[in-house]
DNA sequence: TCTGGGGTCCTAGGACCC
DNA sequence: TCTGGGGTCCTAGGACCC
């Protein structure tokens, strides 16, 4: 299955594009979408990128630019982005039977055995996605996934290709010579630095190394990247692999010292994690609970701690998980600290069919029915419609979300209205 | 004062066993 | 001063991704 070629379809400035679909006044204006809690920039329009605002930059650092250039600032609206993502993915999946949804805004396609003009094919795909969803995408095509990534970069940079680029073998070396080492998929700033100290400055330089040497000095991941840049495919398409862990965590809107609101937040996250777990049809055998103070404030007493709680039996039962989470929190919580964040990670996930039956634990059909009803209720009436008492009602932990747009595609109240003249 | 959240994989090192 | 060697399992931490 590692045989290429591969295409990578990547949505342009995805969150910003979603916002623009429902608010055309945002077109051609600088727009930035913030992370949870309105903390930092997670999506930027091209206008904002040109102003030099970096991915992940905290809002308080670029407030002056916001005022100066009249930048539209938005809180993130994940239900909208998730829904738009599904629409885009469905269309793209019609173009190849073998696809891998890599992230909320990226999808790989295997193009093996497609004999036709790939660029024309990609232009058609791009147009259909734009016409049907309003989301602009770029398409990169290459012999390996890593080269498809390279091609996608080039498609985005050189707009005269119409947002589509096929990196053919005769252009490969030239393209890799022009690509600095940190821009390669899988090579971050740390490894980039150590590679540069060895005289490896560009993607091409990496392909000139003996991969066994790279593996020895670094690791197999980097060795594979080197091979892929050389045109040898060694990262197969991963079709719908169930998650190996599920994490839910949030920073609080304000620092919290008391136990009770932290427990409420953790209960909420646990309930959400259990829901995700059931959605993918898995069971968990152990959970990790953690709490953290603000690591940026060095003057305050710091406390970062986590604890793993083993469960007596693999389960997807929210009530069992809530109990375990609470026990864990009791063990690690310390009074007199200003906490910033808590969260839960479900570990050791197994498929339901493989779940071991415990001699001392009989599956409770009533409880299972309750969980099903809960999930249904959330699907039909929203997550706020029904919740556990331990999640609390005050939600003192809830983050800031000062600039949120409407839920145009997932809420009846927010459905856009169209008037005929 | 304000600085996200959710994933993956790999490696080193300690514990433990024979 | 000498005080095995090798295998497995687990965990923490570090790197990367979007």
What can you see in these coordinates?
The protein is an alpha+beta fold and 421 residues long. 38% of the residues lie in helices and 20% in strands. The strands form 3 sheets. A 5-stranded mixed β-sheet has the order 5-6-1-7-8. Strands 9-12-10-11 form a 4-stranded antiparallel β-sheet. Helix 6 (145-157) links the parallel strand 7 (137-142) and strand 8 (164-166). The mean pLDDT is 91. The structure holds a DNA duplex (18 and 18 nucleotides).
What topology does this entry show?
Blueprint: E1 6-11, H1 14-22, E2 31-34, E3 41-44, H2 46-50, H3 63-69, E4 72-74, H4 78-93, E5 99-103, E6 106-110, H5 118-133, E7 137-142, H6 145-157, E8 164-166, H7 169-177, H8 189-197, H9 203-207, H10 211-217, H11 220-229, E9 246-256, H12 259-279, E10 282-293, E11 304-315, H13 318-332, E12 339-351, H14 365-381
Parallel strand pairs: 2-4, 7-8
Antiparallel strand pairs: 1-6, 1-7, 2-3, 5-6, 9-12, 10-11, 10-12
This protein binds a DNA duplex (18 and 18 nucleotides) through strand 9 and strand 12.
Task: Kindly summarize this structure in a few lines.
The chain is an alpha+beta fold. It is built from 14 helices and 12 strands.
Beta-strand share of residues: 15-25%
Shape: globular
Q: The biggest beta sheet, please?
A: 5 strands, mixed
Distance from N terminus to C terminus (CA atoms, Å) equals 54 Å
Poorly predicted runs are none
Name the strands of the widest sheet in spatial order.
Answer: 5-6-1-7-8
List keywords for this structure.
421 residues; alpha+beta; five-stranded mixed beta sheet; four-stranded antiparallel beta sheet; 14 helices; 38% helix; DNA-binding
């Amino acid at each position: 299955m590692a045989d290429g070629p591969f295409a990578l379809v990547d949505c342009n400035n995805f969150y910003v594009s979603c916002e623009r679909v429902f608010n055309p006044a945002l077109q051609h204006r600088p727009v930035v979408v913030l992370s949870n809690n309105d903390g930092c920039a997670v999506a930027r329009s091209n206008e904002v990128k040109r102003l030099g605002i970096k991915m992940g930059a905290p809002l308080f650092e670029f407030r002056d630019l916001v005022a100066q250039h009249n930048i539209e600032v938005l809180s993130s609206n994940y239900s909208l982005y998730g829904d738009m993502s599904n629409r885009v993915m469905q269309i793209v999946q019609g173009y190849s039977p073998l696809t891998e949804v890599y992230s909320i805004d990226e999808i790989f396609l295997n193009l093996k055995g497609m004999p036709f003009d790939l660029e024309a094919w990609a232009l058609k795909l791009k147009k259909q996605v734009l016409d049907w969803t309003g989301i602009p995408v770029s398409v990169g095509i290459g012999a390996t996934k890593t080269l498809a990534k390279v091609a996608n970069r080039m498609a985005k940079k050189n707009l005269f290709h119409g947002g589509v680029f096929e990196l053919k073998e005769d252009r490969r070396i030239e393209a890799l010579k022009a690509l600095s080492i940190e821009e390669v998929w899988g090579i971050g700033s740390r490894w980039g630095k150590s590679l540069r100290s060895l005289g490896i400055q560009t993607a091409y330089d990496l392909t000139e190394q003996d991969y066994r040497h790279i593996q020895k000095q670094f690791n197999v991941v980097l060795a594979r990247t080197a091979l892929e840049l050389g045109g040898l495919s060694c990262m197969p398409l991963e079709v719908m692999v169930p998650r190996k862990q599920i994490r839910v965590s949030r920073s609080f809107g304000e620092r919290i010292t008391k136990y009770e609101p932290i427990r409420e937040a953790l209960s909420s996250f646990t309930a959400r994690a259990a829901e995700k777990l059931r959605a993918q049809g898995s069971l968990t055998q152990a959970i990790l609970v953690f709490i953290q103070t603000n690591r940026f404030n060095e003057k305050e007493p710091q406390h970062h701690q986590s604890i793993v709680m083993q469960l007596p039996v693999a389960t997807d039962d929210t009530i069992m998980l809530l109990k375990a989470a609470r026990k864990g929190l009791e063990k690690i919580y310390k009074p007199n600290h200003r906490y910033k964040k808590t969260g839960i990670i479900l570990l050791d996930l197994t498929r339901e069919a493989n779940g071991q039956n415990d001699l001392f634990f009989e599956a409770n059909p009533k409880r299972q029915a309750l969980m099903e009803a809960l999930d249904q209720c959330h699907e039909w009436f929203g997550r706020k419609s029904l919740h556990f008492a331990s999640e609390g009602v005050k939600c003192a932990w809830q983050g800031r979300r000062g600039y949120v747009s409407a839920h145009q595609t997932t809420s009846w109240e927010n459905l856009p209205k169209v008037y005929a003249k």
